Amino acid sequence: MATIETPRLLLRHWRDADIEPWVAMNLDPRVNEFLFSTYPREFAESRAALRRRELDELGYGWWVVEVRGGTPFAGVVCLREVPFEAHFAPAREVGWFFAPEHWGNGYATEGARGALEHAFAALGWDEVVAMTAVQNVRSERVMQRLGMTRDPKDDFDHPKVEAGHPLRRHVLYRIRRSQLA
Ligand SMILES: CC(C)(COP(=O)(O)OP(=O)(O)OC[C@H]1O[C@@H](n2cnc3c(N)ncnc32)[C@H](O)[C@@H]1OP(=O)(O)O)[C@@H](O)C(=O)NCCC(=O)NCCS
Question: Which is the closest atom of ligand 1 to the Cα of 133?
Answer without folding.
Answer: 48
